[in-house]
Design goal:
The chain has one domain. It is built from nine helices and two strands; from the N terminus they run αααββαααααα. It has a two-stranded antiparallel ribbon with strand order 1-2. β1 and β2 form a beta hairpin.
């Protein structure tokens, strides 16, 4: 009988559970999938052509909005609601107690997904795919606390259901496939979003925008393009460190 703790063994058991690290094929396929999703997002930004693949970026959108919410609460503020309006668009209605809290909260959106992806890669390097899924489930539960509309509710419950089913009944290969795909998607999901805010400026000028970069440029002396460049640099840094963690040792 298998004596490795399963999802029913309690929180500590799940977080400590390990599964065999997959071969390079799983890592490569999930990485290519994430790259294809990013490309679909970029194509939509440039041409307006909607591709089904871009829907997978909804995970990054949840973590983006969750990043705003988490940092707002962490710095003494609060959250009224999180609302998703599209696979790659959403809003977090929050309040912040100070200018610093406001700056950190707006900066956290584009920073959270790649940092979460890097954290997932660190866990997967040690074979903790179940922990990645369990933490995803916990994150979805927290988002549900500030969900008020049906679309967001359906999306968050859908992600939570996938994580729960894989965690409760899935074997190692399924858990690895989902967890590795999640890590890659989080690492790359904001590339399309940043491309979109650049495209908006190219098409409509550099004034009158309401995105995170515009808000941060309003609240700080740092211009929007510097914030965008900083987020791109963070994504590159996270990918640089996550890739060797995800790739199996020879």
């Amino acid at each position: 009988m298998d004596d490795i703790p399963r999802a029913g063994g309690g929180v500590v058991g799940v977080l400590n559970e390990t599964v065999p690290v997959p071969g390079w094929e799983v890592v490569a396929v999930t990485g290519v999938f994430a790259a294809a999703v990013t490309m679909a997002s970029f194509v939509f930004t440039v041409t307006g052509s909607r591709k089904m693949l871009r829907l997978a970026n909804v995970l990054g959108t949840i973590f983006h909005e969750g990043g705003h919410a988490f940092v707002s609460v962490l710095t003494g503020g609060g959250v009224y609601r999180i609302e998703l309006t599209d696979a790659e668009a959403g809003a977090t209605r929050h309040w912040t107690p100070s200018p610093l809290s406001r700056i950190l909260t707006f900066a956290a959106g584009y920073a959270m997904p790649p940092l979460a992806g890097l954290a997932a890669a660190a866990l997967l390097h040690r074979g903790h795919a179940p922990a990645v899924l369990a933490l995803t489930l916990a994150a979805m539960a927290l988002v549900l606390l500030v969900t008020r509309d049906r679309f967001t509710l359906a999306v968050v419950l859908g992600v939570a259901a996938i994580a729960f089913v894989a965690l409760r009944w899935g074997e190692g290969p399924l858990q690895n496939g989902l967890a590795y795909a999640e890590s890659w998607l989080l690492l790359t999901s904001e590339i399309g979003g940043l491309a979109a805010i650049i495209a908006n400026r190219v098409r409509g000028g550099y004034h009158g925008h309401g995105d995170d970069a515009a808000k941060l440029a309003e609240y700080t002396p740092i211009p929007a393009f510097a914030w965008i460049a900083g987020w791109f640099a963070l994504i590159g840094w996270a990918l640089w460190h996550a890739t060797p963690l995800l790739w199996p040792a020879s």
